Every structure is written in structure tokens, then in C-alpha cells.
Amino acid sequence: MRKILYVLAFFCFVSNYSIAKDVDHLGGYRLIVTSGLDSKGLPIDEIDSVTMDDSRFYIISYWNLPAGTYRYSCIIYDGEQNIVSSQHNIYESDGDNSYFWCSHQLDKRTEVPGEWYAEMGVEGFGYVETYFTVPKDDIRSLLTGNWDWAEAEDSCTPENFITISFNDIGNKMYHNTETGMKLSTSEKAYTSLVYSIVAEGDRFLRTLVVNETQKDEEGDMFLWDLVLTDNNSFCWKSSEWPDGHCTEKLVRCKN
């Protein structure tokens, strides 16, 4: 049996903004997932994945409704098809384009990742659905993608960003870039580096560079901790450095 865990915030507005004009026929609809709303209450983006560390996401439904009184609802299901949020209400339409939005706060302690979906319905016009992914909160999933130094000139251009990926079993991390990367122990620029992962936590990976020959004063291999500062940035900390010391940040690239 599906269990209602808690009730979401639910709102309704009438809109003449351009994004709602896509609904140009009576009874038509449009449904999207967004990471936030702007000052006018409109979506700032359209996404198909929400990470467990994101504070909140929004489901927005656009409808072209004739004038009248309608019952409407918004229901969100998690990766095991449990109802995590549900709301029903009544709306008076004046015959204009209308949009409804509901929001949900993710809680990694209790909620199930996977393929989520949301239903938004208007009585007499049926329900519409949208599907989106809530991936497992895993540091490898967060790191996979393109990154660059935050303060670098032309940061995050295709020729400069660093692409991070992992092997299937997750014990090797690959960094690739066109312009080359330098290690602190060498002036050579590498277009590809492979890191062995020797330890990890929720927010860090302890690594050593494969084929690195330089050693510290004790004759041990240099260890580097990749430390997530948030979901969109990380820094490097050498095992030789005292706590609290880290390199400049690298940030996630949108391209």
C-alpha cells in the first residue's frame, strides 16, 4: 500500500508569461520539473534529475482551462512508488492560461532514490505525468562530468575543462583534458591522469596517482584527498598538509 509520508506545499497562479503560451488549445497542458522559481514564480530551468543533496525541487503544470471551478491535485512518487507528497485543492479559472506548482524537500535519510514521477491532475481534464531520476547520493555520481578551476581564465571552455569518470567497479578515477594538468611534483603537463582510490568517505576520496614516482620525505607515495566542498565544487588536499588547508576550488561546468 502506498503511504503518504508528508504533505507538500502547493500553490496555483494565473500566468500570461511566454512559457505558458505553449498551451494554446483548450484542455492542453505542459508539465516540467525545475530546480527553482524566479521572482515572478516561473521556472529557472527544466531538469530530468534531482540529487539527494538538492534542497528542493518543483513540479509545474500549465493548463489551458475554460472558466469554471476545478478540483486539482499534485502527487509525487519515490523510487519504490511510495507517495512522498500529496495535495488536493479547488481553483477558480477565469478562462485564461493557468499554472500550478508544488514543491518537495528531499530528505536523504528517509527517501528512496531511483525513477521518481509526479502526477498533476485537473478534474474533468485527467492527469498528466512526468518522470525524473533521483540518483543514489554517491560521491562518484556527483563527480562524474566536467570541471574546471574556478579562477582560471576561460574557465569551463571545452578545451580547458577536466572530464572526470570512473571505472565500472569504482576503484579508479580518470581525469582528462585537452590543455593538460600538472602535478605538484612535476612540471610535465598530462592530458590524462589515473587515480587509484585507496579510501573514501561521504565527501572525500583519498587517492594516489597511478605511475607517480615522486615520494615524500619519508619515502611514501603522495596521497591526495579530493574533498567535496558542496555538490558543485571540490578542492584537493595533500596528505602532507595540515587540516583546513586545500587548493583553490574546481567547479562543475554546465557544458
Word description of this protein:
There is one protein chain. The protein is mainly β and 255 residues long. The protein has two domains: 9-134, Macroglobulin (MG2) domain (Immunoglobulin-like, Sandwich); 139-252, Lipocalin (Beta Barrel), CATH 2.40.128. The protein has one helix and 16 strands. It has one helix at residues 139-143; strands spanning 9-14, 29-34, 57-64, 68-77, 83-93, 97-104, 114-122, 126-134, 145-149, 162-166, 172-182, 189-201, 204-209, 224-230, 233-238, 250-252. The strands form three sheets. It has an eight-stranded antiparallel β-barrel with strand order 9-10-11-12-13-14-15-16. The protein is elongated. The model is unreliable at 1-22 (pLDDT under 50).
Write the SSE topology.
Blueprint: E1 9-14, E2 29-34, E3 57-64, E4 68-77, E5 83-93, E6 97-104, E7 114-122, E8 126-134, H1 139-143, E9 145-149, E10 162-166, E11 172-182, E12 189-201, E13 204-209, E14 224-230, E15 233-238, E16 250-252
Antiparallel strand pairs: 1-6, 2-3, 3-6, 4-5, 4-7, 7-8, 9-10, 9-16, 10-11, 11-12, 12-13, 13-14, 14-15, 15-16
List keywords for this structure.
255 residues, disordered N terminus, mainly beta, 8-stranded antiparallel β-barrel, Lipocalin, 4-stranded antiparallel β-sheet, Immunoglobulin-like
Strand-residue fraction?
A: over 45%
CATH class categorisation of the largest domain: Mainly Beta
SSE order: EEEEEEEEHEEEEEEEE
CATH topology of the largest domain: Immunoglobulin-like
Helix content range: under 10%
Unreliable stretches? 1-22
- Cα radius of gyration in angstroms: 24 Å
Count structural domains. Answer: 2
So, the CATH homologous superfamily of the largest domain? Macroglobulin (MG2) domain
Query: What is the number of helices?
Result: 1
The rough form would be described as: elongated
Mean pLDDT: 82
What order do the strands of the largest sheet run in, or round the barrel if closed?
9-10-11-12-13-14-15-16
Number of strands: 16
Question: From the helix content, strand content and strand pairing, which structural class follows?
Answer: mainly beta
